[in-house]
């Protein structure tokens, strides 16, 4: 049964890694938000009222099946209805105490609700029940990364990759750690793998572009930032990163326009705010 911690659509937003300094200009690292790199976008199909109603009908016909509660809990989670999701995962685990997927799903909901200790307990329990469950390692790795436990996070992403995961977050998030440590070649390899697994996601392109730029490969960086914008025009990081290339090239008018677009999308995104001030001479 597919759970809400897996899937090809990714949304990594603001988070754990501050910014890299390149050529005297602030460059935002590929970032994560929500609860640290998880899938945070609403799935309009799986989280729709119609789908939830359909799943409720299934549960009513077979109230003793834990699978039904796990699936509906996932739908509630995708729709942002976290309390409802938590109740369904609790019920699934009451009916099947060794339901390791439900533990990992409930852990993510605990994270959204701010209970990091409960989330860690659930990830640990999921791994105890199934030491080969890649989604639990990735989820726990994100929890560790958000808490600043970089080596523990790296170990979990590494474990998921050793298990032959097809979840792009494992590669993307390990790439972020390599990037933070200045190992740009390894970071580029990981971002490239994440792109191959999730070609429609903007964030791995932003991440790889930053590592290219750290290697002074401006052309490949610019191409990646432009692709990120094409895939997600509402991604403030992509616009700010594109603006940085324009700024490095001395094209301040173009840089100011891209920084301004980033600020419109996210008025609190400091690299864009600072970049706009520089290029507009404020």
TrEMBL record:
InterPro entries: TPR-like_helical_dom_sf (IPR011990), TPR_2 (IPR013105), TPR_rpt (IPR019734), Ycf3 (IPR050498). It comes from the Bacteria. The keyword Repeat applies. Pfam families: TPR_1, TPR_11, TPR_2, TPR_8. SMART domains: TPR. Keywords: Repeat, TPR repeat. One of its GO terms (biological process) is receptor-mediated virion attachment to host cell. GO terms for cellular component: cell outer membrane. TPR repeats lie at residues 66-99, 134-167, 168-201, 202-235, 236-269. PANTHER family: TETRATRICOPEPTIDE REPEAT PROTEIN 6, UDP-N-ACETYLGLUCOSAMINE--PEPTIDE N-ACETYLGLUCOSAMINYLTRANSFERASE SPINDLY-RELATED. This is Tfp pilus assembly protein PilF. It comes from Neomesorhizobium albiziae. The lineage of its organism: Bacteria, Pseudomonadati, Pseudomonadota, Alphaproteobacteria, Hyphomicrobiales.
């Amino acid at each position: 049964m597919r759970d809400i911690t897996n899937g090809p659509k990714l949304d990594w937003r603001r988070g754990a890694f501050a910014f890299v300094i390149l050529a005297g200009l602030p460059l935002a690292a590929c970032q994560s938000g929500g609860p640290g790199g998880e899938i945070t976008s609403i799935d309009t199909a799986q989280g729709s009222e119609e789908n939830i109603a359909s799943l409720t009908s299934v549960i009513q016909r077979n109230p003793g099946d834990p699978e039904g509660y796990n699936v509906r809990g996932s739908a509630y989670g995708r729709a942002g209805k976290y309390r409802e999701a938590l109740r369904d995962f609790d019920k699934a685990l009451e009916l099947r105490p060794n339901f390791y997927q439900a533990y990992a799903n409930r852990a993510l909901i605990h994270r959204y609700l701010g209970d990091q200790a409960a989330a860690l307990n659930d990830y640990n329990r999921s791994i105890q029940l199934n030491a080969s469950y890649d989604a639990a390692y990735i989820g726990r790795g994100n929890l560790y990364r958000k808490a600043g436990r970089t080596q523990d996070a790296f170990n979990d992403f590494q474990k998921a990759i050793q298990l032959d995961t097809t979840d792009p977050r494992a590669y993307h998030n390990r790439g972020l750690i390599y990037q933070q440590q200045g190992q740009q070649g390894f970071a580029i390899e990981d971002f490239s793998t994440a792109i191959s697994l999730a070609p429609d996601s903007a964030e791995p392109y932003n991440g790889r572009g930053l590592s290219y730029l750290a290697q002074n490969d401006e052309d490949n960086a610019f191409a990646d930032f432009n692709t990120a914008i094409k895939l997600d025009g509402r991604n403030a990081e992509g616009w700010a990163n594109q603006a940085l290339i324009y700024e490095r090239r001395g094209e301040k008018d173009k840089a100011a326009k891209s920084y301004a677009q980033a600020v419109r999308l996210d008025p609190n995104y400091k690299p864009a705010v600072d970049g706009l001030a520089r290029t507009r001479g404020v």
